[in-house]
């Protein structure tokens, strides 16, 4: 299954209605991170962009972004958090891996950090590393790319959830681009659902 097919499969269960092309300067991103990125992540950014899945997980942009209301969470900040957790929680004892190979691409509402273990010179072979907060193991590697991991997570295909929260309860899955979420907030609406929200307003949540 090609990377674009994986993203299209994900879109079948999570429509990109409220997504947007992130329009990433990939040359700048590659220079900043000193690597290419997996093709499925590039395809995801082009179709969905960075944003929130069901209000339970955020997919991170590879470059810092300035928001109209607040700056969205970034890959650099969460990568730093993941590497710090690796050192603090004894990651070397769990996995024989170089912490410099950890690159975060997402974070859950339960403070789990979704990463790549970028040890292979081919980014399309990078597995997903979950740095868990309330999971059975603090570090776990899954032999899937980012899009396939999300598809399996959103389809409830794991016998034991890789993240420490109820990510999917059988209801509708939704994705909201971070810019749309901020516009909704400014308009007095819930960033995730678009419903009127008396607590939404001029300052960030």
TrEMBL record:
Name the InterPro entries for this protein. Answer: Knr4/Smi1-like_dom, Knr4/Smi1-like_sf
Tell me the segments the record calls region Disordered: 184-205
- Domain Knr4/Smi1-like, by residue range, is 19-152
| Origin superkingdom | Bacteria
Which Pfam families does the UniProt entry name for this protein?
A: SMI1_KNR4 (PF09346)
Could you identify this protein by its name? SMI1/KNR4 family protein
Q: What is the lineage of its organism?
A: Bacteria, Bacillati, Actinomycetota, Actinomycetes, Kitasatosporales
